[in-house]
């Protein structure tokens, strides 16, 4: 059976034009989605690709991830810095996934540690391993998908 | 493409050092995998490790002189202390990638600050020893696109 990967894109990621200033020109979420689907297809993984600006919806996706999917790639974007966010709820969902030994990788388009990016800090899960890929533009997703595939193939 | 993979202190102990965190792969096996992955894509990988901060700084400086295309750096514990490595990386004009086997942000708070991260283009962490070969493979993709 095909392994199921969920890719979640958090708040603000419907418009990627503000990544131009970091050298990731002319990116759109559609392009990212297309590339992810191609990569997953070539590796024989089934993938759901979603984006939401809504916290409740994001929580639902996270819950779904741990129940229905084998792996999670998440670009939390502004989520981990949002004033109204519940970081514990966020972290506990990520941990639930990681504790089931299901691969979880946090991705970012730009290098979030470079001056001026300052959009967030990495996921603060206290248990389980969470991978981290930041700064490769559209290729951050590609690297994460390959890493997920490798981890899933080592598990089975 | 010419690629330097520079590794910092204690990475020579891989395989025996806290395997629950760093895994069972040895530095030799990772090095071999990186070089082979590079060859597959027609890229030349030089894999290095030092326990000495100054030596790492000199390797970065030699990368500038030799016009190396990419530095992949796992500065290990110097990540969290070395302004000298930060400065050296700043002067390297090529592509710079920070790599860690574990995810430092999920570990002790003294590992949460990285002087390397703001000086590089991209950061990869927590993908285990496989992170190295994934990055080398991705570099070939980047070159093609």
Automatic annotation (TrEMBL), chain A:
Could you give the subunit structure recorded for this chain? Homododecamer.
Gene3D superfamilies per UniProt = Dehydroquinase, class II (3.40.50.9100)
Family under the similarity heading:
Belongs to the type-II 3-dehydroquinase family.
Q: Which residues form a coiled coil?
A: none
Going by the UniProt record, its keywords in alphabetical order are: Lyase
EC numbers: 4.2.1.10
Query: Which biological process terms from the Gene Ontology are attached to this UniProt entry?
Result: chorismate biosynthetic process; quinate catabolic process
Which organism is the protein's source?
A: Candidatus Pseudothioglobus singularis PS1
For this UniProt entry, the molecular function terms from Gene Ontology, in alphabetical order, are: 3-dehydroquinate dehydratase activity
Q: Which InterPro entries does the record associate with it?
A: DHquinase_II (IPR001874), DHquinase_II_sf (IPR036441)
This protein's pathway: Metabolic intermediate biosynthesis; chorismate biosynthesis; chorismate from D-erythrose 4-phosphate and phosphoenolpyruvate: step 3/7
Record field: catalytic activity: 3-dehydroquinate = 3-dehydroshikimate + H2O
Protein's UniProt name: 3-dehydroquinate dehydratase
Superkingdom, natural source: Bacteria
Automatic annotation (TrEMBL), chain B:
Q: In which pathway does it act?
A: Metabolic intermediate biosynthesis; chorismate biosynthesis; chorismate from D-erythrose 4-phosphate and phosphoenolpyruvate: step 3/7
- Site keyed Transition state stabilizer: positions: 17
Q: What is its EC number?
A: 4.2.1.10
Source superkingdom: Bacteria
Q: Where is the active site?
A: 22 (proton acceptor), 100 (proton donor)
Pfam family for this entry, one: DHquinase_II
Q: Which reaction does it catalyse?
A: 3-dehydroquinate = 3-dehydroshikimate + H2O
Keyword flag Membrane: no
- Which molecular function term from Gene Ontology is one that the record holds? 3-dehydroquinate dehydratase activity
Q: Which family does it belong to?
A: Belongs to the type-II 3-dehydroquinase family.
Protein name from the UniProt record: 3-dehydroquinate dehydratase
- Organism, per UniProt? Candidatus Pseudothioglobus singularis PS1
The gene behind this protein is aroQ
């Amino acid at each position: 059976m095909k392994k199921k990967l969920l890719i979640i894109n958090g708040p603000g990621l419907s418009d990627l034009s503000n990544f131009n200033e970091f050298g990731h020109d002319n990116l759109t979420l559609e392009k990212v989605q297309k590339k992810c689907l191609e990569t997953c297809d070539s590796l024989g993984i089934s993938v759901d690709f979603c984006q939401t600006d809504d916290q409740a919806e994001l929580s639902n996706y996270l819950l779904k991830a741990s129940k229905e999917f084998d792996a999670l790639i998440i670009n939390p974007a502004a989520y981990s810095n949002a004033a109204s966010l519940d970081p514990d709820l966020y972290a506990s969902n990520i941990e639930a996934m990681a504790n089931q030994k299901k691969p979880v990788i946090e991705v970012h388009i730009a290098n979030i540690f470079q001056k001026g990016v300052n959009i967030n800090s990495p996921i603060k899960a206290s248990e389980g391993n969470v991978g981290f890929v930041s700064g490769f533009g559209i290729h951050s997703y590609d690297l994460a998908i390959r890493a997920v595939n490798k981890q899933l193939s080592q598990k089975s | 493409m010419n690629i330097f993979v520079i590794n910092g202190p204690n990475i020579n102990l891989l395989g025996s050092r806290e395997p629950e965190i760093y895994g069972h792969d040895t530095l030799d096996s990772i090095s071999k995998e990186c070089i082979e992955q590079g060859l597959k894509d027609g890229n030349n990988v030089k894999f290095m490790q030092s326990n000495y901060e100054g030596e790492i700084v000199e390797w970065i400086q030699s990368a500038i002189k030799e016009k190396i295309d990419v530095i992949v750096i796992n500065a290990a514990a110097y990540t969290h202390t070395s302004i000298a490595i930060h400065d050296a990386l700043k002067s390297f004009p090529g592509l710079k990638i920070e790599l860690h086997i574990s995810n430092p942000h999920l570990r002790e708070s003294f590992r949460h600050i990285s002087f390397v991260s703001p000086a590089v283009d991209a950061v990869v962490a927590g993908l285990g020893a496989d992170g190295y070969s994934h990055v080398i493979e991705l570099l070939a993709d980047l070159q093609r696109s």
